[in-house]
Design goal:
Number of domains: 1
Distance between the termini: 50 Å
Largest sheet: 3 strands, antiparallel
Helix content: 40-55%
Structural class: mainly alpha
Order of helices and strands: HEHHEEHH
Shape: globular
Amino acid sequence: MNKFAQHYADPRFLDTTALARRWDVSPRTVEGWRHRGIGPPWRKFGGHIRYFMGDILAFESESLITSSRSSNARASETEVASACLLERRRGTNDDG
């Protein structure tokens, strides 16, 4: 098995669709965030985008928001995306 095929099948890596499923967002959302530099680092193996599980877990851990910011402060795109992911992972939303 060549190194590209090995990484493609490696359970330590997720493709865009699997990451989107994990975060309960569409693959297009993950792609858009990637193009804007939001989210975990990614790698390209033989033309295929892959995310290392360790990077995903680190990003999720760093994305933990423990308190509200001042109403005058504006959250960055990364913080907004992170909060969205955490809410979806917890199965909650602000709509009640």
